[in-house]
Amino acid sequence: MKILILGSGQVGSTVAQNLASMPGNDVTIIDIDENALHNIGSRLDVQTMLGNGASPLVLKRAGAADADLMLALTRSDETNIVACKLAADLFNIPGRIARVRSTDYLEYGAPGDEEEGNSLSIFDITESISPEQLVTERLVGLISYTSALQVLRFADDKARMVIVQARKGGLLVNKEISQINRHLPEGVDCQICAIYRNNHLIVPSAKTVIIEGDEVFFVAATEDVAAIMRELRPKEQQNRRIMIAGGGNIGYRLAKQLETQYDIKIIEFNQHRAEWLAEHLDNTLVLQGSASDETLLEAEYIDEIDVFCALTNDDENNIMSSLLAKNLGAKRVITIVNRSSYVDLLEGNKIDIVVSPHLITIGSILAHIRRGDVVAVHPLRRGTAEAIEVVVHGDKHTSALVGRRVSEVKWPQGCHFAALVRDDEVIMGHKEDAMMADGDHIIFFVSRRRVLRELEKLIEVKMGFFG
To answer: What is the pTM of this model?
Structure first.
């Protein structure tokens, strides 16, 4: 497959690394930064082209006429959407994916537009990726569950994967996993698909004992998540008071989505933006000032805040305001950090949860470019592992999975079957006699990313396959 990538920033370079490692891919990266291109060209087996990705001449020189896929991932929305329009009209590139940050393009639709509320269709973009929207969804999930480290949604939110740290007082702590059903209400089930203990993976079995401090990855039907979390941690007070530092796109979206459910305060440094927020938010208290102002935080009773979210565009400001808020008594702190090197240093120390917009964005892009019908990809453990949702198609003659029981399939080592979703039913992976059918959504936890190619081969429909 011939692939053009516009932009060699953190998102573009990481996606290029993923694609270049797959056999049969011919990747070309276009950027206006000569140094960035030199760096990425020396690390990866890719071609590089210096120039503006929205230039027809540059696209032609990069081989757009023969390309199968364009990924427009620059920091400029306008460059990305113009490039996609050119890719469609001039070069007939079949796949055109654009990274679009501005809400204007996402929320305003042209009259009669079939995709009401979205104006991107007029630019012939086949798929759009909105980092702000993706990050907001992740933050909503984290706030919904008091102690979750991550909350991932699958199959139109019929199932969720939750990562939680086991704590003393949880009913299942210091007990075997096989005992979990003794405490759960009738009809409630889950699949514990991974445990990380001191950063080392433990593949759980019925005899595995969960101890305090374990990071437990489990999948359950969405309505059952809260009951299962009670097994792993003592009962905790629900979140009520939330303080948001930063009233940009993400801060505004988060406040708008949650302001009817929680008591929300938002701190914005820019006076004009603060006034705009006050006009557009109905039940949120907007404060103009600095989130790293100790006097302001204390005056707004930071010690009574359940969740403090640092959501500005500046990593250093987010880190400092989060550390200050935690020191002044905020119960839980969630921080957006763009630099991946910072994520490793911060999470689990004073800051409870570090959210990486780049990793979330990359996961969404990978879902569109993986082989087979991949619905969702969520990088985990700083990108070393993944949670994947796929839809299986075909029949016993054209698929290695359809028409077979879970126990009959030889899964790649490091690939763990977590759950199967069929219509409104969520079937856990420990039910090995479950039969897979055409259209089923299957959720996997992949602890070793190098087995992904083997998994892709399993889920592909193969004409003439007789397994």
So the answer is: 0.85
